[in-house]
Amino acid sequence: MSFQHLDIPTLQAWLDEGRELALVDIRDPMSYAQGRIPASRRLDNDSVGAFLDETPAERPVVVVCYHGHSSQQAAAWLAGQGLAEVYSLDGGFTEWQLRHPGRVEV
């Protein structure tokens, strides 16, 4: 299993539609606290076990990092854990914040 790339306009459309998905942010705690995409949850080594336990395998998962690089590794790993639909957000949180400054939660 592998992950797919997701662009920011598609994620925006999914959120606007209210599509059921799990949005996970793998940035460091301070960066996450300073701003994140609404409805995202921070994921790290300590919380990933609970996340996998709570998340249905068929639910789409979108992984967010700073610029869309490290999220690819995390997305590939999550896909390897049996999640059926895993995406890495191209451009990451930095690009999201640039395009949608009004859609950042602090």
Tell me what you see in this structure.
With 106 residues, this protein is an alpha/beta fold. The protein has a single domain (4-103), classed as Oxidized Rhodanese, domain 1 (3-Layer(aba) Sandwich), CATH 3.40.250.10. It has 5 helices and 5 strands, in the order E-H-E-H-E-H-E-H-E-H. A 5-stranded parallel β-sheet has the order 1-5-4-2-3. Helix 2 (29-34) links the parallel strand 2 (22-25) and strand 3 (40-42). The mean pLDDT is 97.
Question: Spans of 5+ residues with little confidence (pLDDT < 50)?
Answer: none
What spatial form do the alpha-carbon principal axes imply?
Answer: globular
Instruction: Give the full name of the CATH homologous superfamily.
Output: Rhodanese-like domain
Total of helices: 5
For the biggest sheet, the summary is: 5 strands, parallel
> How many domain units?
1
Here the CATH topology equals: Oxidized Rhodanese, domain 1
Distance between the termini: 34 Å
Beta-strand content estimate:
15-25%
Radius of gyration: 13 Å
* Category from helices, strands and their pairing: alpha/beta
- Order of strands in the sheet with the most strands? 1-5-4-2-3
Average of pLDDT: 97
Question: Any guess at the CATH architecture?
Answer: 3-Layer(aba) Sandwich
